[in-house]
Amino acid sequence: YVKGGYTFTSRGCPRRCWFCSVWHRDPVPRLLPIQDGWNVLDDNLLACPRPHVEAVFAMLKRQKRRSEFTGGLEALSLEDYQVGLLADLHPKPTCFFAYDPGDAFETLESAASRLLEAGFTRASHRLRCYVLIGYPKDPFATATQRLEAISGLGFTPMAMLWRPETARAQK
Question: According to the model, what pLDDT value does residue 48 have?
């Protein structure tokens, strides 16, 4: 069951992040039929082939609600044509990016710069960024610095507390 308006157009991710289980299930994006919806929950939409990404955005343009990408968008996969697709959605969508351990800060910096140049604004809080914190050997001060750095780029930081797989399974 997926709530009305929520949609998955692909599953999977080609990245091999140590803290994520998605790539274990689907190590390459698995394309799904595109169903109408305004909230895209894909694991890594931007890693999908261009025709699929363009078809998803064509679907989003037909929707009556503001688009959201709560499944997350990956700065490393963000191409200029995708920046254009995001900027062409009206009203501007809410974009959730991620800054994970091992990610190059410059990649997120480039994404923010290109999106702001394309018409997104800092004040709108439409550019958000999940920031993983509290993983092993991640001091509070270092996590705070990452959150502040993300804010400085124009993203609204959203702290995500790391929990080991065993802790999640015991719940």
Answer: 94
